[in-house]
Structures are given as structure tokens and as C-alpha cells.
Amino acid sequence: MTGKSANQRQRPRRQFSLAKNKAQGRYWSGAVTRQSNALDLEPGVFTWSDPAKIAGSLKHSAETSARRKGTPYQSAMSMLSLYVFGFRTSRLTNTLNCLAVPPSNQRRQIRCLASAARPAMLIRPMPKASPCAALSHVREEMGLTNLRLMVPFCRRVVEAERVLKVMAQHGLGRGQNGLEIYMMCEIPNNVIQVDAFAAIFDGFSIGSNDLTQLTLGVDRDSEIVAFDFDERDPGMLEMLRLAVAGAKRNGRHVGICGGAPSNYPEIAQFLTGLGIDSISVNPSSLVRTIAVVREAEQSAGVT
Questions:
Q1: pTM for the complete prediction?
Q2: pLDDT (mean) for 42-51
Q3: What CATH number is associated with residue 178?
Q4: Distance between CA atoms of 104 and 259, rounded to whole angstroms?
Q5: Within-domain flag for 2
Q6: Least confident of 80-84, 175-179, 229-233, 269-273
Q7: Are strands 203-207 and 181-185 parallel, antiparallel or unpaired?
Q8: C-alpha torsion sign, points 196, 199, 200, 205
């Protein structure tokens, strides 16, 4: 016995075939974007920067529509979900606040919207030609060849390979005219597969903020779970150790950015003991961190 109720055991499961839907051109999000006419939106509403203005416009459109199928609230939220990935998370949260979504439900709403969009909309955009051209101009035309590039939030090795390939197609090939390309190490998978990432990147910068969030399963911007955001957690310290050790093992430069070394001198001391190559800190904590690092290096016999 599984302990499930009779209703749960008898409930039929709906089966979805992503391949079948793709082959027949029936992606729900694509069809809705092309054909939906449930609301009359104000022109350019999703280009506005004021969350309150966006929310007010959506609310008005939903309340005045005679074609919507659900409640005004449901229609407004459905329309917002179609554009959620064009928002910064903080901007989305502010818009949800203006639509009177209770704080306890905001993170659930964001998670649901993200899950509904998988897998197609969770693929990170490839580098565009114009930023690549600008960076290439800085190096090749302006002669600032000390410029290094950094790829952020790269989830998988195959994704990294695709990004590097596109960059190379636009004049930013790794090793071309001495170009070094680093990667942000801010996802647990970056640490777990550090050897594989080290094979295709020249160095790492540990993003302590995101790495802490993803390691501990918390959100430092959420009033519900932010109290558990702590870079000093033993699991996070082990993540830092593995990241630095992995980079060193592969002869790669490794530094850190984020709030951890600035907020906690003991983490700066810990990282110095690991042999990290560089530490980025806030200006207000620079003098204190220099003293901590110097003391740690002297204790380790580093001159």
C-alpha cells in the first residue's frame, strides 16, 4: 500500500508528448501569442518601466474586456505570464504587488510561470551580434586587448559550448589575439563539473550570492525564506572549497564576487587560506578586507 487515498489512486494522469506537439506545431504559448485577442492592451504596455503603471493598465484592460474567459484577475495574470521572461524578477514582483497578489503567493506565482514555460523559454539567449561586435571593436580597433570576457549563469557544459561557438562566429574566439573568456561559477552544477568547464574557459569568478541561493534553496529577496540565506553555512563553505580547488587543479584563475567576503571577514580569511586569486569587495569594506587578507597570508607564510 502506498498510503494514497482511493481518489488519488484512481485519478487518471494526463500524458503530454512534447515531441508530438512540436512536430504538429501546437506549442500553447506560441498559439496564444499569435491568436489570443482576449484583452485590448495599451500600445507598448510591456515596454514601460513603472510596475504600478503596467499593473493599472492590465487591470483596466481586463475589467473592460467583453471577450475574456475568466475573471479580470485571471486574465491580467495570464497576460502577464506571457511576458514574464522579459522582466527582471524585482520588476515582476513589483507588478504582482500592484496587482494585489499576496506576498506569500508571489514566489509560487513566479515558480509556476517558470515551470509552465519549460523547456523552450528557459534556454538562455545566445549572444547577439551587436554586443559581440562592440566588444571586438574595443579589443581589435581600440587596442584594449587586456579586456577579458565573462559568461554568466551558464547551467550546462553543452550550453557553454554553444555560447562560445556563437561568440567565435562574431569575432570573439577564445585565444584569438590572446582573448581570455571566464565563466561565472554561481550554479552548483558549475562546481560539480568544474573540470569540464575548466576545459573550455580560462578562469572563474565565483558568484557567492546566486551560489548560496541555489545551494541552500532560498531567495534572499523573499521575505518568506530570506532568513536562511547565509554564506557561512557549512555546505556553502564546502562549495567554495570545491570551486577553488577545482580551478587550481586545472590551472585556472579563480576569484569571487558577491557579498560574502564583504559581509563576513571570516569568509575572506577562509578564501585566502584556500589560495583564491582575487576577491571583489564593496568599497566600504575594502580597508577591513585588506587587513584580513594580509593577516591570513602572513599566518600562512605567504609573502
A1: 0.61
A2: 73
A3: 3.20.20.60
A4: 26
A5: no
A6: 80-84
A7: parallel
A8: positive
